[in-house]
Write a structure and sequence with these properties.
Blueprint: H1 4-18, E1 21-32, E2 42-53, E3 58-64, E4 69-70, H2 73-83, E5 91-98, E6 111-121, E7 124-137, E8 140-150, E9 169-178
Antiparallel strand pairs: 1-2, 1-9, 2-3, 2-4, 3-5, 5-6, 6-7, 7-8, 8-9
Length: 179
Amino acid sequence: MKKLIPILFFILPLLGFSQDKVLTKTGTAIFEASVPSFEEVKATNKNSGCVLNTKTGEIVGLVFMKGFQFRLALMQEHFNENYMESDKYPKGVFKGKIDNFDFTQLTTQKQDVTISGNMELHGKSKEIRIAAKISKTGNTVFLTSNFDLNTDDFNIELPLLIRSKVAKKVNVTLEYKLQ
């Protein structure tokens, strides 16, 4: 009994704290850097992680670069080895906050929100603001976003041979079902 009391004092606050967060490890991240008249440059990662603090609106997103799946294996190899240098920079991380967030106001209707934060990718960081849509059904929060990133902002160099075939402005789509 004497050992149980300190354990309870340690565990109970953690249980209460964990209820302030919703998360997923199976979110979807899609990027597209296609240009007209050339091969589609698009990949999907279905193991994107996201944690949302329902009290503060703080949010963290994580994507492992090697999790992106391309239609062509050669594109995936070039993406990981030559452009993203995935062994050296294995993940992309976003840390931010949903502006004016109030969890109690979430409904089944999608609401437009702005998320401000820091994107870290390829060893570089950049402050960004992105538009998103958020809704809640039961205990599940749905968050989607579509925004652009510029390869120059993260020192991602494209070889001269393919510069005309891959867009510098990369469209990113995120879909999270947080529980």
